[in-house]
């Protein structure tokens, strides 16, 4: 009668837990001899060849090349008595108890081997630990007790005790003897707060819980859980996260900083506010900054270009769709001012105001957020000086506009109080080199420091 | 001088340090040559081609029967080594330390010893164990993690395997000094001690101390260094400025380099060295120039640090093949003899396999029982507690 034996993946070095199947040298139906090389595996340490433990005929391979297999999981079934009388096909489950438990890391390893389904079914999985005697009669225990060394064929699938669900997803930290003490005394470790290092529950914790089962002891991990809030990641948060990760890991970012004296710009702003043409217009520093950006892009079109890796091309654009990063109750949105380069300062100011209102009302449509070419993030409104902004995916530059503060500044050899602002420009170094990025940033700075420069553009 | 093109190239005339982190191609090739050739001082009596040559200082008168015995020893121990290696790959041993390629060095040295001599092995001395009458099955427990080796070190005159590198050299030096103090040295019936270590161990302080103590006390100790060229991944030329056998001169005793793949030369040189020691002329260093044909241990991957060319060169110097060629040429052995040895090897391998998979797991109390010669209340309390804990599991002992 055919005798099916399963060869579990051995730990070929010291303390390895898994290995990748590289090549099988045999296939089902092949006759094998003892010590014939049957498979080549690669562990974290080395590529090694495994010899066959028995002579016989290969019945089944349980892992494919490229597959990573845990130590102890059967990789091949061999019929060691193929000449025997006809018998049922390979049993659905077979216990490998060929003394292979030695040298493994404690009982975590499938030493008290639980029968494993043939094929790609679940591995030894959750029932690796032997059941304690005083626990409910576990069907697995009977199988685990199969005597070594004779391999035994166990046809019936093995029921696996369901693992205890850990409330809150936490596992209380405690050493085995303490766990035993808690179990003996009937103390729920989940209800304890560990006083040991890193929150480990100590023997004293368990003992004091027994002597004084007061509400104090219930300040537990569960309690901690109630002081935390878990919010599903979705919507704008998810889109933002995805965009930021995509950008940060594809475009090599470079950030440059420039501190400018924007006093002339602020003076101009004050004058224009009183000008009839700007009556009713919300003329913010951001509007000046936007104007400076669209003017400067003319001299440095690189910052307004796109890296198209699919087409292997850099796309230069004769328009500027200016993105403005806006904080809204829903999160960060970046609506665009279309064709910002064709707008006057007044038109820009009006457009920015509308944009902000729509965004804050949460009414920015997805279309409004598409196809930007360059972005400004106004961190100054939060009273922040500067930052290292992350590019909007598909764009090559983003400018952070910092808070405008009264600061000491040297003017004509004397320290004066001036309106000072920091600019930070991040750019995609695949598209923009330091020279172009620096020039662009210097241009924006110059335009804000002396708006009269715009006359020269 | 500092243009970027030059940054990526080393200065052409700056000689690379011998201890540079990575050997240059030149160093690798030089090292290859060094491992291949033992130099002018190499004692050899049987060439890799199986030709018998003479040596002015060392020669040996060997009978056909003796040489057949050495051949058999080497074939059997190689088979044991390969079988144990395979057992590790089948998950039956936690680790194995292969001796492949070093059979002649070990059988030659081991067969030079008398039953009254004492041997201190490291952990690769399966061939020495064989010559001391320790059956290979008695080694398996060490590598299966079930015992510390089951032979009686006093009866077999073969110390337990020492895993700590070079540590046994101190023990052996002390033992040999004891032999001297006990007056067991000085004539033909004198005793001697031999200690086995590798080229890597020569970088250990313990080995240096052993050299010093043995030298100043004229201990009857043969330092038998198997230079298998690789201290795990570190080649010998990166551990020593001069050939290892020349180190002995600095300590004031003779150092001999012998072809460790030549069982006759190893036997002759070791026999001479042991005789010198038992007459009170020790200690002596023997460097057996050989090669580790397999990995350092089953946990090691030598393809990561050495060239396969080197392995191919050493295959031509196989210790067993040259003896076989010589036996055939001398008509000292026929096909029947070789087939008989093969059959014996098959049987031994089968034995080993059967023995290994059927080895009982030691009882849990074993970790406590061999710690003190006499009991210790603290340890006994720990033992009782542990046994009580273990007995709490269903399924009995495992």
From TrEMBL, chain A:
All residue ranges annotated as the Peripheral subunit-binding (PSBD) domain in the record: 173-210
Compositional bias (Low complexity): 82-95
Region entry Disordered, spans: 82-138
EC number(s) stated in the UniProt entry for this protein: 2.3.1.-
Cofactor(s) it depends on: (R)-lipoate
Superkingdom in the source lineage: Bacteria
Keyword Acyltransferase attributed: yes
InterPro entries given in the database record: 2-oxoA_DH_lipoyl-BS, 2-oxoacid_DH_actylTfrase, 2-oxoacid_DH_E2_comp, Biotin_lipoyl, CAT-like_dom_sf, E3-bd_dom_sf, PSBD, Single_hybrid_motif
Domain Lipoyl-binding: 4-79
Keyword entries, A-Z: Acyltransferase, Lipoyl, Pyruvate, Transferase
Pfam hit, one: Biotin_lipoyl
Annotated CDD domains: lipoyl_domain
Record family assignment: Belongs to the 2-oxoacid dehydrogenase family.
Protein name listed in UniProt: Dihydrolipoamide acetyltransferase component of pyruvate dehydrogenase complex
Higher taxonomy: Bacteria, Bacillati, Actinomycetota, Actinomycetes, Pseudonocardiales
TrEMBL record, chain B:
SUPFAM superfamilies for the chain: Thiamin diphosphate-binding fold (THDP-binding)
Coiled-coil intervals: none
Keyword match Transport: no
Cofactor(s) the protein requires to work: thiamine diphosphate
Superkingdom, natural source: Bacteria
Keywords: Oxidoreductase, Pyruvate, Thiamine pyrophosphate
InterPro entries: Alpha-ketoacid_DH_E1_comp, DH_E1, PdhA/BkdA, THDP-binding
Domain named Dehydrogenase E1 component: residues: 72-348
Pfam families, alphabetized: E1_dh
Region of interest: Disordered: 1-20
Protein name, entry field: Pyruvate dehydrogenase E1 component subunit alpha
Organism whose genome encodes this protein: Lentzea flava
